[in-house]
Amino acid sequence: NTHILCQRAALAESITIVETQHPRKKELAQVLLQRMLAFRQELEKRNGGNPVAFRVGLSGPPGAGKSSFIEVVEKMLTGRGHKVSVVAVDPSSCTTGGSLMGDKTRMTELSRDMNAYIPIVLCEGAGYDIVLVETMGKPLFQFFVVFLI
């Protein structure tokens, strides 16, 4: 479990670096993303050109049950040996162009599951084979999620 926690901490730090607006850290973010993309391409090559992860987009209005649905599906998938990443995106943020939402508070079982992680390229490179992308149900956001999956 300590090894998994270290991996999750490194992934969390990588996500923070990639999302930063700090000028010096942006350079590090570029290097990190370039290496991760190269690593993912190598994994896809070894996988016969197939994607390394299966991506699913979910969109709906607040209170529609997206988080509840994700938690049930995640539990089923991790029970079958998959590593699941949940990326909850709010593309409405005008300062960053999008942000990760804090759904971990609503997905209590998910937050305790060592095979699931809440923040796409970094998660895939870290070995998550299923990425669930959640966003709000406004038409623009539904359009946005198509580009993420």
UniProtKB/TrEMBL annotation:
What molecular function does GO assign, one term? Answer: GTP binding
Alphabetical GO CC annotations of the entry are: cytoplasm
Which positions make up the signal peptide? none
Q: Which family does it belong to?
A: Belongs to the SIMIBI class G3E GTPase family. ArgK/MeaB subfamily.
What name does this protein carry? Metabolism of cobalamin associated A
Q: Give the species.
A: Sinocyclocheilus grahami (Dianchi golden-line fish)
